[in-house]
Specification:
The chain is α+β, with helices and mostly antiparallel strands. It is 24% helix and 24% strand.
Length: 909
């Protein structure tokens, strides 16, 4: 039994609405005028198939409104003919002439043809814009109008907006207090309360829900930061009660000359001292717009151009000029070069910092510690006590399904060489290929040394470079075909064909070219093979060279030859010891190389021991098999320009040692083969599938495996899958049912099937959380019971976060051994992010808690990693199939917004 934790409860930063008193507010709604839609559809490009265009894309218009009109919420991204959906909500009736001026400028900028624009505008008039009053009582989440009641999802949008308004009332402040000395001195009387900082919050636009951010920034001028409180209204499965979720973050501001990304916009937050346009009401709230890097003509330079900054999208700049605002708004180039100058100006403007903008680290570390999170949550609790009440702390669960000790014994790190060799043979057969493709001699030596120790073999110095023939190493359990040779030119950066103007086609051509080179250089593998490949690091592919990163092309190129790949960067060259002999490799380099070998074993589907399912005292009488559904989904956006929805499924037998995967046009096959076939059929291809098609795929998969095992646990992730399988949405999720079509089916129609759905912190669907006792807050691994179907899972602090300090505030001193330690903006932050587990469907006589406990325990079941991963192990296996379908890491770097800065958490991918 593990030692008893000092924390037996977990607190969510979540609130219920008080139903015992009304919470009435009047808001205003604006719908897109119906008779505008037809003429405005002419702004869209004609469709290739000649079909009628019935909607107006208004994303750019919404962006301009967000930049110029404070305190409005735009909720529609398209204006569709025949739909009377809400478009804009506001606290006040915004002057319609000012709005129309923005709309007219948008029409002129998008049309590109003055005559066409004037023809369209002749059919529009500002009097067509009519605000509708909405009298709302949020205590009941109903409207005061009986004729046109707002849909529940729209009310969920408005509640955070109202809360943000309450938290940003002028004069309302949060005082950051110095904590009491836990070891007070001998002086008489009580120590005075010390206020070390004050935060006053203002509303700011948010990707979802609403946000407030303190202004002016703390730690000016050299370490500028603001606290951000994200507010969303969420639901839970099987309940109609709304919950308010909080997520606390730290926003770091650029304060030095910055390098802008070549493939991403950079957000700028603005506080104008006067309204941008006549007729608009001045507000204390932030406006937001984005700047981008662009090639500015410079005839006097050698290149004929220079990189500068402008308002993003090009057309926004034209709209601003049309409105006569180009001189009033901050100059993008000055924001880039001297961002600190506008942080405390009367017309404030702040450029969000993102990693890569400096050649050095920002003086403020990412993340927000509990020392700052908890007081802010308490402040919100006190401020909104009239309307909101915190959810109750959740008790710790005590059920254990997977023996933690045996799970640790089954890790690769705890296995001896013979065990690993035998496990590889079990997974792929009696022969395996192992390649080391190196660029530097010292990286090769690290790879050889770690592989030799891992498998207990003698790894050759080099193998035949000319023929490529491997050395054969025979052991009692396994025959190894070892190749050690230089990586050659196919390990270098991608060279895109500049004559190809389409980003997608250029990337596809570069990847295909690299695949061909790898195939010519290596030929097909003789057996299932894993390849360790040394490439240049990210710094070699920064900025405009980012898309030249060859990692993905190498992975899919090797996959075409039957090889699974892991890329590593150059290890530091060992330093000679003082006596002149060669020194040993650094521990970090050795650990990194070992982890790379572990990942390759993971890709082969290797496990050294069965999953240790405990039956005693639980309703789980038979070890289940595991089925995980995942949707590899990439929208057409950014530099890649590809749309794809590829559903995949992973099936793991009850022992955990037989892993299969399938996808459309790829039948069930062992994991190491399935990755190659899924990549072959679906890599970098436009594959648009409707939700109905995706749902049918998962239905066929479930029907095909449901009776293979007497017990089967289905695992899904709500945020990933519900677009393709709408049944996973809370309103559609029924207890103990499975639904693919219009009618739900009772779970008993699938004997032995259980379903646990997880939700992550994405989109703040799971709020901040922390462990609590009567004396302090902290972090603790465990699962926690919210009700008889909803549970939350947290992991332990990994060794990589051993230096993280939960009590290190960014703005408040802390006590350490009776002495005050100054506030630290550089302290490492780690937070245990909770994972929601919904036991959606179980069989009669099952205990929901047992299946939640099993899903929780599966976060520790990965054999290659010693700590909890971000999702249960079968889901992680399914998610990682995307690595051979699209450049996952590169896409994440390009698409992830730095709105709520990242921090170390309790999970690994």
């Amino acid at each position: 039994m593990p030692p008893k934790s000092k924390f037996q409860q977990q607190q969510l930063a979540a609130f219920r609405l008080r139903a015992d008193r009304p919470w009435e507010r009047r808001l205003y709604l604006l719908r897109f005028p119906e008779h505008w839609k037809k003429p405005l559809t002419t702004l869209s490009r004609a469709r290739r198939d000649g079909s009628e265009i019935r909607s107006v894309p208004i994303v750019l218009l919404n962006d301009v409104i967000r930049a110029l009109v404070p305190d409005v919420i735009t909720v529609a991204t398209r204006a569709t003919i025949g739909e009377q959906a809400p478009w804009i909500y506001s606290d006040i009736e915004v002057d319609t002439e000012s709005l129309f001026a923005i709309i007219a400028a948008w029409v002129r900028a998008v049309s590109g043809d003055p005559a066409k624009a004037e023809t369209i505008l002749s059919r529009l008039h500002h009097l067509d814009l009519a605000w509708e009053p909405l009298d709302l009582d949020f205590a009941r989440l109903t409207t005061g109008s009986g004729d046109d009641e707002l849909r529940s999802d729209e009310l969920y949008r408005l509640l955070p907006h109202v809360i943000a308004a309450e938290l940003s009332i002028p004069g309302l402040r949060h005082q950051h207090l110095q904590p009491e000395n836990p070891k007070p001195g001998t002086q008489d009387g009580e120590d005075p309360v010390v206020v070390q900082a004050v935060s006053e919050f203002r509303r700011c636009p948010a990707p979802q829900g609403a946000s407030v951010m303190n202004w002016p920034p703390h730690q000016m001028p050299n370490r500028p930061l603001s606290y951000l409180i994200n507010i969303t209204a969420q639901s839970r499965a099987f309940s109609t009660e709304p919950l308010v979720h909080l997520s606390i973050g730290t926003r770091r501001w650029a304060h030095k000359d910055s390098t802008l990304s070549f493939n991403r916009d950079h957000n700028v937050y603005m506080l104008p001292s006067l309204p941008w346009l006549p007729g608009l009401v001045h507000s204390r709230s932030f406006l937001i717009a984005a700047i981008e890097s662009w090639k500015k003509p410079a005839p006097d330079t050698d290149m004929g151009f220079e990189y500068s900054a402008r308002w993003a999208g090009g057309k926004i700049g034209r709209i601003l000029r049309e409105l006569g605002l180009d001189e009033r708004l901050p100059d993008p180039e000055q924001l880039k070069k001297t961002p600190a100058a506008r942080l405390d100006a009367a017309d404030a403007a702040a450029l969000v910092f993102r990693n890569g903008m400096y050649s050095f680290d920002h003086p403020v570390a990412p993340g927000t510690s509990l020392a700052d999170k908890v007081p802010l949550v308490d402040w919100v609790t006190d401020t909104l006590a009239e309307h909101l009440v915190p959810v109750e702390p959740m008790p710790r669960g005590t059920t254990i399904i997977l023996d933690s000790g045996k799970l640790k014994e089954a890790k690769f790190a705890a296995s001896d060489a013979a065990q690993l060799r035998a496990a590889i043979a079990d997974a792929v057969g009696g022969t395996v290929g192992i390649d080391i493709f190196y660029d530097t001699g010292h990286t090769k030596n690290y790879a050889r040394a770690t592989l030799a120790r891992l498998l207990g073999i003698e790894v050759p110095e080099d193998t035949d470079h000319v023929t490529g023939k491997p050395d054969i190493i025979v052991t009692e359990e396994l025959t190894i075909l070892a190749t050690v040779r230089p990586v050659g030119e196919w390990g270098g950066g991608l060279a895109g064909d500049e004559t190809i103007t389409n980003n997608k086609d250029r990337l596809q051509a570069a990847v295909t070219s690299r695949m061909d080179k790898i195939g010519e250089a290596l030929g097909d593998a003789e057996a299932p093979t894993i390849s360790l490949v040394e490439i240049k690091g990210k710094k070699s592919y920064a900025g405009k060279q980012r898309a030249a990163d060859p990692k993905f092309a190498i992975k899919v190129g090797l996959s075409r030859t039957g090889r699974l790949a892991q890329c590593v960067t150059e290890a530091p060259e060992p330093k000679p010891s003082e006596d002149g002999n060669e020194g040993s490799g650094s521990d970090s380099s050795l650990e990194k190389m070992v982890n790379s070998w572990y990942d390759l074993l993971r890709q082969l589907g290797v496990r050294t021991a069965d999953l240790p399912v405990t039956h005693e005292g639980t309703s789980i009488t038979e070890a289940p098999a595991y089925l995980a559904f995942w949707l590899i989904r990439q929208n057409q956006r950014g530099w890649e320009g590809i749309t794809r929805q590829v559903p995949v499924a992973v099936l793991i037998d009850p022992t955990g040692r037989t892993i299969q995967a399938c996808a459309p046009n790829v039948a069930w096959m062992p994991l190491h083969r399935a990755q190659h076939e899924i990549s072959r059929h679906h890599m970098l291809t436009d594959q648009k599938r409707t939700p109905e098609e995706i749902t049918r795929f998962f239905e066929r998969v479930l029907r095909s495996v449901a009776r293979q095992y007497p017990s089967l646990l289905l695992l899904t992730c709500a945020q990933n899958l519900r677009w393709g399988w709408p049944h996973l949405n809370n309103p559609d999720l029924g207890i103990d049912t499975v639904k693919f079509g219009q009618q739900p089916q009772d779970i008993t129609r699938y004997p032995g099937l259980r379903h646990v759905r997880v939700r992550t912190t994405d989109r703040d669907e799971v709020p901040d959380s922390y462990a609590v006792n009567s004396k302090e807050e902290g972090h603790a691994p465990g699962y926690w019971t919210a009700d008889d179907r909803i549970y939350f899972s947290t992991g332990e602090k990994p060794v990589s976060a051993s230096k993280a300090v939960k009590s290190a505030s960014m703005v408040v001193s802390r006590w350490k051994k009776g002495e005050l330690i100054n506030a630290s903006t550089k302290a490492m932050v780690w937070n245990a992010r909770a994972l929601e587990l919904t036991v959606a469907a179980i069989q009669p006589d099952d205990s929901p808690e047992d299946w939640a406990a099993l899903a929780h325990d599966l976060r520790w079941a990965t054999p290659h990693y010693n700590y909890a991963v971000s999702q249960p192990w079968p889901l992680m296996v399914a998610k990682q199939l995307a690595q051979y379908v699209m450049p996952v890491e590169l896409l994440q770097e390009i698409e992830d917004e730095d709105e709520t800065p990242s921090e170390l958490d309790d999970s690994a991918e």
